[in-house]
């Protein structure tokens, strides 16, 4: 159950954080993973996972660059003949209260978190359609539903991911392809590691399961939606937040 043996998965933003957790879990489930990132450290992440038995390779890809995306997809098709799973996980923050927000901060977040979904999904979808099978899963966020101070740009993209997913699901379901999203809650990351301990403690106090989420927790949420067994789940957003509002 929930195995990905013989399947080819692209995981964007896989160098660190949640993306790294997804890469680890997908490799453990038997997938061959193409780790995409703009960070050169993606190479080390791939080598570390490979050393523990994973089938994984790094491709230096900026998801906002159509040419880079198209050529990375072609390399995978040439080597493996198909792409079963696309995980649109790459994302950025440029937090600032709305009145002080610069155009560049708005544009960067919209470009990476939302416009890139157009690019990556359009590049991969024809291959999934030809194969009659596919799983497309994109990163939303609890803050796309709750809103957050200083995150008008970020929350707009993460709510946009949910709407994109619902609509795409209606178009691609008949080809054996599903589109879903994961909305992580409070997850241990570089960002949370740099927060004052009392802020982290206050955040955890809001989570009914009584702990912060891990990248591996997110990996398992993505794994479920990526599995063949989740074929009747389409157009939904899975709220992976330990029961914190809102769901
Ligand atoms: N960490 C959380 O608590 C949390 C909560 C809700 C949603 N999310 C979402 O989950 C996803 C992963 O979050 P994270 O905390 O692991 O973030 P992170 O910043 O640790 O990792 C994001 C990765 O995306 C890569 N990336 C950024 N721009 C890119 C581009 N143009 N092309 C390719 N790669 C690019 C970065 O280099 C980085 O490796 C994001 O979409 C984020 O918005 C995270």
- What is the share of helical residues? 40-55%
Count of DSSP strands? 7
Radius of gyration: 17 Å
Low-confidence stretches: none
| Count of helical regions | 9
Helix and strand succession?
Answer: EHEHEHEHEHHEHHHE
Q: Would you state the CATH class?
A: Alpha Beta
Domain unit count? 1
- Might you state the CATH topology name? Rossmann fold
Shape: globular
Report strand order across the widest sheet: 3-2-1-4-5-6-7
Overall mean confidence score, pLDDT: 96
Topology diagram in text:
Elements: E1 8-12, H1 17-28, E2 32-37, H2 42-51, E3 55-60, H3 66-80, E4 85-88, H4 103-131, E5 134-139, H5 142-146, H6 152-172, E6 177-184, H7 190-193, H8 197-205, H9 215-226, E7 237-240
Helix pairs in contact: 1-9, 3-4, 4-6
The structure holds nicotinamide-adenine-dinucleotide.
Q: How would you briefly describe this protein structure?
A:
The chain is an alpha/beta fold.
């Amino acid at each position: 159950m929930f195995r990905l043996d013989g399947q080819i998965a692209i995981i964007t933003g896989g160098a660190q954080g949640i993306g790294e957790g997804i890469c680890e879990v997908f490799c453990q489930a038997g997938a061959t993973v193409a780790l995409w990132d703009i960070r050169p450290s993606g190479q080390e992440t791939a080598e570390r996972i490979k050393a523990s038995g994973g089938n994984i390779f790094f491709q230096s890809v900026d998801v906002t660059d159509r040419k880079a995306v198209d050529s990375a997809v072609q390399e995978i098709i040439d080597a493996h003949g198909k792409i079963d799973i696309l995980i649109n996980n790459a994302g950025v923050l440029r937090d600032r209260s709305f009145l002080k927000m610069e155009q560049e901060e708005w544009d960067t977040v919209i470009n990476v978190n939302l416009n890139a979904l157009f690019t990556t999904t359009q590049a991969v979808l024809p291959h999934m359609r030809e194969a009659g099978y596919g799983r497309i899963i994109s990163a939303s966020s609890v803050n796309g539903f709750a809103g957050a101070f200083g995150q008008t740009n970020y929350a707009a993209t993460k709510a946009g991911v949910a709407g994109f997913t619902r609509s795409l699901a209606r178009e691609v379901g008949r080809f054996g392809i599903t589109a879903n999203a994961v909305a992580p809650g409070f997850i241990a990351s570089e960002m949370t590691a740099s927060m004052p301990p009392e802020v982290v403690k206050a955040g955890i106090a809001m989570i009914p399961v009584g702990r912060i989420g891990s990248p591996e927790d997110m990996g398992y949420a993505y794994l479920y939606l990526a599995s063949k067994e989740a074929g009747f789940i389409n157009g939904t957003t899975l709220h992976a937040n330990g029961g914190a509002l809102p769901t």
